[in-house]
Design a protein that fits this description.
- The chain has 199 residues and is an alpha+beta fold.
- The chain has one domain.
- It has helices at 3-6, 8-12, 120-126, 188-198, and strands at 35-42, 46-54, 57-59, 69-71, 86-88, 96-108, 128-135, 139-149, 155-162.
- Strands 1, 2, 3, 4, 5, 6, 7, 8 and 9 form a 9-stranded antiparallel beta sheet that branches.
- Strand 8 (139-149) and strand 9 form a beta hairpin.
- The chain binds manganese (II) ion (MN).
């Protein structure tokens, strides 16, 4: 599907006169290695947004990068969303401050039962994907596995689990309020204060 179609929901939820989030016009960014980003988002509830580039669009799920975590899928976001750090204005969808906590590239490690590589987008479609992150903070293998919630299985959710095989030092979930941006070194509070001053 062309990126313009997959971004329709993303655009519908936002008013680009009041939010500085990208509209997603630039589809030229995708390089040879797919990218990931982990943003910390101080919205109505604090959460991690974990985005993987798949088929040219960084996909949800939004979730926490460590251990066994529940990850809820979100609408597709534009590629350049991985560059977004700042404050989403009050009244806007997802209002609150965002920092880029970690970023890097990842390698698809998804295989079928016979050990043959399955393309990443297809692995996500099938509901089970393995990948190796090469970030500034996050390194190692993770798996995303889909399951269904609710009586009729109507809600889609994912589990994000770090592989035990590729461990090195065990990494712990950061305290989101103390965590620093991998780009600017700023905390959520500092980003919010700096943008307040700029107004
Ligand atoms: Mn978010």
């Amino acid at each position: 599907m062309p990126a313009s179609d997959t971004l329709a929901e993303y655009r519908r939820k936002r008013n680009f006169h009041t939010t500085r989030e990208p509209r997603g016009e630039d589809r030229s960014e995708s390089g040879p290695k797919p990218r990931f980003v982990v943003q910390i988002h101080d919205a109505s509830t604090m959460h991690f947004d974990f985005r993987l580039e798949a088929d040219g669009v960084p996909k949800g799920p939004s979730g926490d990068p460590y251990d066994k975590r529940l990850a809820m899928p979100t609408e597709d976001h534009p590629l350049d969303y991985r560059n977004f750090e700042g404050v989403i204005a009050e009244g806007e969808y997802g209002a609150g401050t965002v920092i880029i906590w970690d970023e890097g590239t990842f390698r698809n490690r998804s295989t079928d039962k016979r050990g043959r590589e399955v393309p990443f987008a297809e692995a996500l479609e099938r509901g089970h994907a393995w990948f190796r992150l090469n970030g500034s903070k996050l390194h190692g293998d993770w798996a995303l596995t889909r399951f269904r919630q609710g009586d009729g299985g109507e809600r889609e959710a994912w589990l994000l689990v770090k592989s035990r095989e590729t461990d090195g030092a065990r990494q712990h979930t950061p305290d989101p309020r103390r965590a620093r941006s991998v780009r600017s070194g700023h905390t959520l509070g500092q980003v919010a204060a700096l943008e307040g001053e700029a107004k």
